[in-house]
Design goal:
alpha/beta; binds 5-O-phosphono-beta-D-ribofuranosylamine
């Protein structure tokens, strides 16, 4: 079976992107990272991708003002030009419209730094500590129009330790993210997970 062509969408440092690029470097992996797109020209992940020989593009949302759909049409054109099969959101900090999500129904994944459905949204590690949970973690899910919802593909739990700060907890969760995102993408690329 031909490898699935994946675009990774980022806004920042791109450590999850890097874990996907690493996994896709394996001959037996069912997907290749054909493109990395950032909505921010200064995203550190862009340089990281380029240094690994991956094609990158910037679609700067600030150029589109409040016109979210114009931004997304530009993104969609880019994904079509690269014949992308699957999209992975990896620290991509833009909300997507129902139209765009509909274009990628069952073919767009996101990683969230919490055990969904708990702690949707931002500042998950601070909120997990404030809530006093003993177990926290990360979730990979299909993207649906409602933020941080959509069918779950993989979750990993990590313990919350008594002396954790948001930073120490984030670092532990991030290791789990880097483990499960490549596994979840593999499942989807091999059509073992469906929305
Ligand atoms: C990760 O914690 C991811 O779960 C969240 O944003 C962070 C992105 O980190 N959505 P990176 O850019 O992948 O390093």
């Amino acid at each position: 079976m031909a490898k699935q062509r994946v675009a990774v969408l980022i806004s920042g440092r791109g450590s999850n992107m890097a874990s996907l690029i690493d996994a896709a470097g394996d001959d037996g992996y069912p997907a290749e990272i054909a493109l990395v797109v950032s909505n921010r020209p200064d995203a550190a992940g862009l340089e990281r991708a380029r240094s690994q020989g991956i094609k990158t593009a910037v679609i700067d949302h600030t150029q589109y003002g409040k016109d979210r759909e114009a931004f997304e049409r530009a993104l969609q054109d880019m994904l079509s030009a690269y014949r992308i099969d699957l999209v992975c959101l990896a620290g991509f900090m833009r909300l997507l419209t129902t139209w765009f999500v509909g274009q990628w129904q069952g073919r767009m994944l996101n990683i969230h730094p919490a055990l969904l459905p708990a702690f949707k949204g931002l500042h998950t590690h601070e909120r997990a500590l404030a809530a006093g949970v003993k177990t926290h973690g990360a979730t990979v899910h299909f993207v649906s129009p409602e933020m941080d919802s959509g069918p779950i593909i993989a979750r990993a739990e990590v313990p919350v330790l008594a002396d954790d700060t948001p930073e120490t907890l984030a670092a532990r969760v991030l290791e789990a993210e880097h483990r499960i995102y490549p596994q979840a993408l593999r499942q989807v690329a091999e059509e073992r997970a469906r929305s």
